[in-house]
Write a structure and sequence with these properties.
Aspartate Aminotransferase, domain 1, seven-stranded mixed β-sheet, three-stranded antiparallel β-sheet
Length: about 375
């Protein structure tokens, strides 16, 4: 009889993915966390050209130097992070980057602070590293933002790292500069690492993005191309950290994936170096959709914080399981809040990474729910 390893038995499949199995032809999917826009043509063309030119083989483990140069320049000029190409690893999506960080940094007996609500992979990756996830409860009083005060209250002698996400999934919250700086100072004072997931960096409607790496060296920055450039299928992202940390993470990357796709690396290089108008257009469209979905939910009497970034809302619905069931009966898929933490059982996540027309129809259907 098959018996899985203890560390695998300790985690569940993503609640988001489970919802996909319930989708039918007539269902409107508000559960999907990827832009519905096509990858910009100049990026696709670069990928095609790389194949035509025979660039279809392994690259060096860290990624091609041209891409790491471009990433390094981006981090220095836009994020004020002191880095260089040797401190960067190009990964197979931000998911691999997160897994790689946890495997390289933490072990049994360590504690890792994670946001609650927070992205589903954080808890799972910490558990797979046999460490203990410690949820930090985030509430509507602060628009679900992580604060330095909340972090400070949860630090213990066993705290090895914290995983942070701004703009955040599933809430769309954007952290304030004072909290980014304050948490960076706490990391330096207490000697723990910051794993900063900045994948939604460019999708901001209010406020400004600040990188933890600007304020501390104890930071592993994760970013990528999936959300900003609608490149989810390319599976391409990166980490940036001090050289000694990078060399340890490289061991995990080397034996896990060897290297990211050569074709995707060329596409990512074009994304960074090419025109950026598509990003501005996409964010502008997301803002219109955000205003629509928040307005409609509030008109229904549903309490909903207006997100400052990303493309999710996280409304309060009471019993989320009942609401999810009734939404599905009305042909709309949403994700129950408990998928994102124990603190989120009375919320659901709705993604507005679908067309304006789909959102209007979904809200018309959800308006029929009585609960």
């Amino acid at each position: 009889m098959f018996k899985p390893s203890r560390r695998v038995s300790a985690i569940d499949l993503s609640g988001i993915r489970k919802m996909f199995e319930l989708i039918t032809e007539d269902t409107i999917n508000l559960g999907l966390g990827e832009p519905d826009f096509d990858t910009p043509p100049h990026i696709v063309e670069a990928a095609k050209n790389s194949m035509d030119e025979g660039f279809t083989h392994y690259t060096v483990n860290k990624g091609i130097i041209e891409l790491r140069d471009a990433i390094s320049n981006k981090l220095i000029t836009e994020n004020r992070i002191k880095t260089d190409p040797e401190s960067i690893i190009v990964t197979v999506g931000a998911s691999e980057a997160l897994y790689m960080c946890c495997q390289a940094l933490v072990e049994s007996g360590d504690e890792v602070l994670i946001p609650d609500p927070g992205f589903v992979s954080y808890h799972a990756c910490v558990k797979l590293a046999e460490a203990k996830p410690v949820p930090i409860k985030l509430g509507e009083d602060y628009d679900f933002r992580m604060t330095a005060e909340a972090v400070n209250e949860n630090i213990s002698p066993n705290t090895k790292a914290i995983i942070l996400n701004s703009p955040a999934n599933p809430t769309g919250s954007v952290m304030k500069k004072r909290d980014v700086r304050g948490i960076a100072e706490l990391a330096d004072d207490h000697g723990f690492y910051i794993i900063s997931d900045e994948i939604y960096e460019k999708i901001i409607y209010q406020g400004q993005h600040y990188s933890f790496g600007e304020f501390s060296d104890n930071v592993i920055t994760i970013n990528g191309f999936s959300k900003t450039y609608a490149m989810t299928g390319f599976r391409i992202a990166y980490t940036a950290a001090k050289t000694d940390i990078t060399e340890e993470m490289l061991k995990i990357h080397q034996y896990n994936t060897a290297c990211a796709s050569s074709i995707s690396q060329i596409a990512a290089l074009e994304a960074l170096n090419g025109p950026q108008e598509s990003v501005k257009h996409m964010v502008s469209e997301f803002k219109k959709r955000r205003d629509l979905i928040v307005g409609r939910l509030r008109d229904m009497g549903i309490k909903c914080v207006k997100p400052a970034g990303a493309f999710y809302v996280f409304p309060y619905v009471g019993d989320a399981d009942i609401y999810v069931k009734k939404a599905l009966e009305n042909g709309v898929v949403v994700v129950p809040g408990h998928s994102f933490g124990e603190n989120s059982k009375e919320h659901v996540r709705m993604s507005y990474a679908t067309s304006y027309e789909n959102i209007e129809e979904a809200m018309d259907r959800l308006e029929q729910i009585e609960y």
